[in-house]
Recover the amino acids of this structure.
C-alpha cells in the first residue's frame, strides 16, 4: 500500500513528538530533578497558574512537597536554598543573565537598567544611577527633608479626613508615588496625597495588566502582530514622566538631573524611560509593603508588636533613624513576610551549564528563586518562617545568617537599586505615625488582604485597607 505524502508527514511529526517526549521523560537532564511527572513534558500547568494569578502559591506548594529543588517545566527549575540563591543571583557579582520576561518592563520602547538582559550592559548602565541611590545620597538633608515633608502632609491629610475609618491603601500608595517622584523628578514631583495628582496613582495602582503582560511574554510574536492593529496611547502617568523630564530646572539631587548631565549623553526618552521604571517600582514596592505591614500591626495579634514599637519611639525621640533597632526589626520582618517582589526572578543558566544544589542544569535553562518560598521554607534559618516575629532580627548572630537569605530586594549586583530610599521612606513614616497613634482594623473593613499576584509584584486582593487611628495621648 502506497502512503500519501501527507500521511508520511503526519507520521513523521508524530514520531518526532514521541521521540521528544521519551527524551524528556527519560534522558533529558531535567528529568532527574524532583517535580510533578507532567512537568517533564510541558509547562502548560505553570502557564495556567500564571494567568490565574496563582503561580507563586503553586510553586510554593510544589516546594513543600518536593523540597528545595523543583522542576516547573521541561526547561524551568525553581530553588529555595541559600546556595542556589547565591549561585543564580550573585556568582560573578551579578549572577546569571535575565530572561526575556524582563522585556515586559521596557518603557517607551527603550531598555532601562531593570529591563537590560545581559549583565555586562546592566553593569555599564548601573554606574550612572547607583550614586543617586547610595545610602549616603539618600541620607542627604534635602532628600530626607523632602520625604519628611511628605510624611507630615500624609499625617495631616489623615487627621483631616473627617471619618474614623481611613483607607490606608490609597494614602500609602500616594505617599510612595510622591516620595519616588520627588527623588526622581524634583521639583516636578507629584502631590497626590493632597489630591492634585491622585488620578496618576489610581491609574497605575488600580490597573490590572497581569494577563496582558503574560500574553506579551508567553506569545510575543502573536501579541506584536495584534498590536499592529491597535492605536497606541501613552498613559497619563507615562506622559507625566516624559513632560517632567523635559523640564530644564531638574533639581540637583534628582535622578533626572544626574542622567541628563552624565557623560553618557542619554537621549531624552532614555532619561524618561529610566525614571518611569523607577517610579513604577517605587509605587509598587513601598506602597504595598507599608500597606501589608500596617495591616499586620493593626490586627489583634499584632497589637503587642505595635506596643513595643511605640515604647521604643517614645523613649528615643531624638535618636537617628538607624538607631531604632525595633523599628528596623519590624520593617525587616514585614518585608520578609510580605516581600514587595515575592515572585520568581527568572535567569538563564550560562553556557556549558552549571551545578546547582547538586544537580547539573543545562545552558539556557530558566532558573529562579521566589522570595515568598525562600523566606518561609528554610526553617534552619527562619524558625517558624510563616509567622510574623520581628524579635528574630534582634539577635545579631542570627541576623547575619538571615541576611544571607533575605531576598525581598533581590540579591547581588542586580538587586533593587532603590532599597535604601524605600527603607528611609518606611522608617520616616512609621516613626512619625506610631509616635502619635495606634492603628486598629476598622469594624467596616471587609476587604481581603490576601496577596494578589501581578507579573512580578503583588498587591492586596481587594485593594483596600481600612484602619482607625487612636491618638496615643488618649490611651
Amino acid at each position: 500500500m502506497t502512503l500519501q505524502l501527507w500521511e508520511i508527514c503526519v507520521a513523521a511529526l508524530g514520531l518526532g513528538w514521541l521521540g521528544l517526549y521519551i527524551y524528556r521523560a527519560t534522558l533529558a537532564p531535567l528529568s532527574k530533578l524532583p517535580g510533578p511527572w507532567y512537568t517533564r513534558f510541558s509547562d502548560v500547568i505553570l502557564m495556567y497558574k500564571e494567568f490565574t494569578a496563582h503561580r507563586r502559591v503553586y510553586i510554593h506548594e510544589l516546594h513543600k512537597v518536593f523540597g528545595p529543588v523543583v522542576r516547573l517545566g521541561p526547561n524551568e527549575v525553581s530553588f529555595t536554598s541559600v546556595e542556589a540563591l547565591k549561585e543564580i543571583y550573585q556568582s560573578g557579582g551579578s549572577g546569571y543573565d535575565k530572561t526575556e520576561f524582563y522585556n515586559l518592563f521596557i518603557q517607551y520602547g527603550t531598555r532601562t537598567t531593570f529591563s537590560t538582559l545581559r549583565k555586562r550592559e546592566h553593569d555599564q548602565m548601573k554606574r550612572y544611577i547607583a550614586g543617586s541611590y547610595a545610602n549616603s545620597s539618600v541620607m542627604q538633608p534635602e532628600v530626607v527633608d523632602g520625604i519628611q515633608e511628605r510624611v507630615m502632609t500624609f499625617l495631616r491629610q489623615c487627621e483631616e479626613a473627617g471619618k474614623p475609618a481611613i483607607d490606608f491603601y490609597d494614602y500609602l500608595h500616594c505617599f510612595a508615588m510622591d516620595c519616588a517622584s520627588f527623588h526622581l523628578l524634583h521639583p516636578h514631583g507629584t502631590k497626590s496625597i493632597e489630591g492634585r495628582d491622585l488620578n496618576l496613582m489610581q491609574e497605575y495602582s488600580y490597573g490590572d495588566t497581569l494577563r496582558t503582560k503574560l500574553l506579551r511574554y508567553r506569545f510575543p510574536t502573536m501579541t506584536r502582530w495584534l498590536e499592529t492593529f491597535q492605536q497606541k496611547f501613552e498613559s497619563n502617568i507615562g506622559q507625566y514622566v516624559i513632560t517632567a523630564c523635559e523640564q530644564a530646572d531638574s533639581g540637583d539631587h534628582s535622578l533626572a538631573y544626574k542622567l541628563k548631565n552624565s557623560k553618557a549623553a542619554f537621549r531624552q526618552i532614555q532619561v524618561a524611560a529610566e525614571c518611569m521604571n523607577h517610579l513604577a517600582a517605587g509605587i509598587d514596592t513601598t506602597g504595598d509593603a507599608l500597606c501589608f505591614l500596617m495591616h499586620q500591626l493593626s490586627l489583634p495579634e499584632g497589637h503587642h508588636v505595635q506596643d513595643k514599637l511605640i515604647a521604643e519611639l517614645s523613649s528615643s525621640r531624638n535618636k537617628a533613624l538607624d538607631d531604632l533597632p525595633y523599628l528596623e526589626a519590624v520593617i525587616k520582618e514585614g518585608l520578609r513576610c510580605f516581600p514587595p517582589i515575592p515572585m520568581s526572578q527568572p535567569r538563564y543558566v550560562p553556557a556549558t551549564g552549571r551545578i546547582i544544589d547538586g544537580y547539573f542544569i543545562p545552558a539556557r535553562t530558566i532558573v529562579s528563586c521566589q522570595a515568598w518560598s525562600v523566606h518561609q521554607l528554610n526553617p534552619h534559618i527562619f524558625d517558624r518562617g510563616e509567622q510574623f516575629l520581628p524579635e528574630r532580627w534582634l539577635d545579631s548572630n542570627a541576623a547575619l545568617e538571615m541576611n544571607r537569605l533575605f531576598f525581598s530586594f533581590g540579591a547581588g549586583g542586580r538587586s533593587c537599586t532603590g532599597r535604601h530610599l524605600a527603607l528611609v521612606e518606611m522608617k520616616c513614616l512609621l516613626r512619625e505615625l506610631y509616635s502619635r497613634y495606634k492603628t486598629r482594623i476598622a469594624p467596616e473593613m471587609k476587604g481581603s488582604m490576601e496577596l494578589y499576584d501581578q507579573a512580578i509584584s503583588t498587591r492586596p486582593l481587594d485593594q483596600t485597607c481600612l484602619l482607625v487611628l487612636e491618638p496615643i495621648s488618649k490611651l
